[in-house]
Amino acid sequence: MKVIKKIAKLLLLLFIAIQFFRPEKNIDQGSHLAEFLNETNPPENVETILTNSCYDCHSSNTAYPWYNNIAPVSWWISGHIKEAKGNLNLSDWDSYSKRQKVHKLEEVIEVIDEGKMPLKQYAWIHKNAGISKEQGKAVIEWARLTKALYELGPQPR
Question: What is the pLDDT of residue 49?
Answer without folding.
Answer: 95
